[in-house]
UniProtKB/TrEMBL annotation, chain A:
Chain segments annotated as transmembrane: 106-125
Record's keyword annotation contains Transmembrane: yes
Feature: compositional bias, Polar residues: 76-85
Source lineage: Bacteria, Pseudomonadati, Pseudomonadota, Gammaproteobacteria, Alteromonadales
Record-given protein name: Anti-sigma factor
Keywords: Membrane, Transmembrane, Transmembrane helix
Region (Disordered): 68-92
Species the sequence originates in: Paraglaciecola chathamensis S18K6
TrEMBL record, chain B:
Pfam families reported in the protein's UniProt record: Sigma70_r2 (PF04542), Sigma70_r4_2 (PF08281)
Domain RNA polymerase sigma-70 region: 24-90
Sequence similarity: Belongs to the sigma-70 factor family. ECF subfamily.
Name of the featured protein: Sigma-70 family RNA polymerase sigma factor
Organism expressing this protein natively: Paraglaciecola chathamensis
Keywords: DNA-binding, Sigma factor, Transcription, Transcription regulation
Length: 246, 182
């Protein structure tokens, strides 16, 4: 006779935990022991019935009562909760709703805060752009601008650049022209002034030369006349004429 | 699609979220109701027992420490509430005594419409003592192991095995009688 009793063997069989040795014993017991065989058959039948048992829906009942009962929670029942480890837990376990009612008021706040943070992160990561132009709301995802917007942006930048360049060129040309006019005027004035001065200097030199020539001529003629006068008043011997001597 | 775990629902229920508590309740009300139906044998008592169980579960929810499955913890409470229920209803009857007072309320068999076998099995179970009935219920319908049954009912594993063995013999006889009567 083996050391396993019938209840043990049946239990092992029901949980499908029989070792090969136990299975051999189990099968032998089924053959040799009619009572055991009938028990196994009964277990199989009941297991079959239980597996074939079809649940139906729960009739309508007041589920809220389980909730309301907690809110009322009698003091006697609270006193029975002796298994609580610390005082805070004791307070909680007496009536969880009572404990949490205060917190429930703001319980939504962390969730909403978390959700908003997550949304903000998503918006940043996806590069969401919201634009409102002339009553039209546009939401764009992605960091890259669309081709159209890019070409528009380039066109506008080019137009601005072109306009700036044109203005700069026209201003430059105008300045250059004015500068040239001023230079030409200055050059003309300089030329006129310098030629007039030179001519005046030339004439002054000429007049001075002419005056000097005339002065030299006068001096020459004066000497000639003196010489002539002396020649006239002296005779051939060099004696002075009477009239002249008087 | 993203079903919350029992632990998440418990945590939220403890924070006072009624919706989470109802979700948890709806998840387990059917097994608990049918447990009550098979243990008490009638619909009204099953509903009363179910309500008792869930009130007790919620009252002790904060003491649930995630040790073992929530289902196991729930059925342990259900077992003790069931014993309390029988003590209130039949104070003189022991756990191992066979029931003496026949059920007067609407029999569960009438509610179980699928097959006659359901009715036959439930009817036979009503004639077992509570201790044996609990083991049969937890083993065949709850699909618990003998160790879990022992933890839930507060008996030893060997006692659970021997009670099941004893219950099987009685059930077989009772069901044969019922079959002949039918």
């Amino acid at each position: 006779m083996s050391s396993y009793d019938n209840a043990e063997l049946l239990a092992l069989w029901l949980e499908d935990n029989l070792t090969p040795e136990q299975r051999t014993i189990f099968e032998q017991r089924c053959v040799q022991d009619d009572d055991f065989a009938q028990q196994v058959e009964a277990a199989s039948t009941i297991k079959l019935h239980a597996d074939g048992y079809q649940d139906f829906d729960v009739p309508q009942w007041d589920r809220g009562k389980t909730f309301d009962c907690q809110e009322r929670g009698s003091s006697q029942e609270r006193a029975n909760s002796q298994e609580r480890v610390n005082s805070q837990e004791r307070v909680d376990s007496r009536n969880p709703f009572e404990y949490s009612a205060r917190r429930q008021r703001w319980a939504w706040l962390p969730s909403v805060s978390f959700a908003m943070s997550a949304l903000a992160i998503v918006l940043v990561l996806t590069g969401t752009q919201v634009s409102l132009t002339s009553g039209e709301l546009r939401i764009r995802f992605g960091h890259e601008q669309s081709q159209l917007a890019m070409s528009k942006l380039i066109d506008s930048k080019l137009d601005t650049f072109k306009q700036n360049q044109q203005e700069a060129f026209s201003l430059y040309a105008q300045t250059l022209q004015q500068q040239q006019l001023e230079s030409a005027s200055q050059l003309t004035n300089y030329l006129l002034t310098s030629s007039r001065k030179e001519r005046r200097e030339d004439f002054a030199e000429l007049i001075k030369f002419v005056n000097q020539q005339r002065s030299d001529d006068q001096l020459f003629y004066a000497r000639q006349l003196n010489q002539l006068q002396q020649d006239v008043y002296l005779d051939a011997n060099g004696i002075k004429v009477d009239g002249t001597q008087q | 699609m993203f079903e919350k775990s029992d632990e998440q629902l418990i945590e939220k229920a403890l924070k006072g979220q009624k919706k989470a508590w109802f979700s948890l309740l709806k998840r387990y009300e059917k097994p608990v109701y049918h447990y009550g139906l098979r243990m008490t044998g009638n619909n009204a008592d099953a509903l009363d027992l179910m309500q008792d169980v869930f009130i007790s579960v919620f009252r002790n929810l904060s003491s649930y420490r995630n040790e073992g499955s929530f289902k196991g913890w729930l059925f342990r409470i259900a077992h003790y509430r069931c014993i309390e229920f029988y003590r209130r209803k039949r104070p003189q009857q022991g756990l191992d005594d066979a029931p003496e007072i026949p059920c007067t309320a609407q029999p569960a068999e009438q509610l179980i419409e699928n097959t006659q076998r359901n009715a036959q099995l439930v009817s036979a179970m009503q004639q077992l003592p509570l201790a044996q009935k609990s083991v049969v219920e937890l083993k065949f319908f709850g699909h618990f192991t003998f160790e879990e049954i022992a933890q839930q009912t507060g008996m030893s594993v060997n006692t659970a095995k021997s009670r099941l063995y004893g219950a099987l013999a009685k059930l077989k006889t009772l069901m044969e009688v019922d079959y002949v009567e039918l």
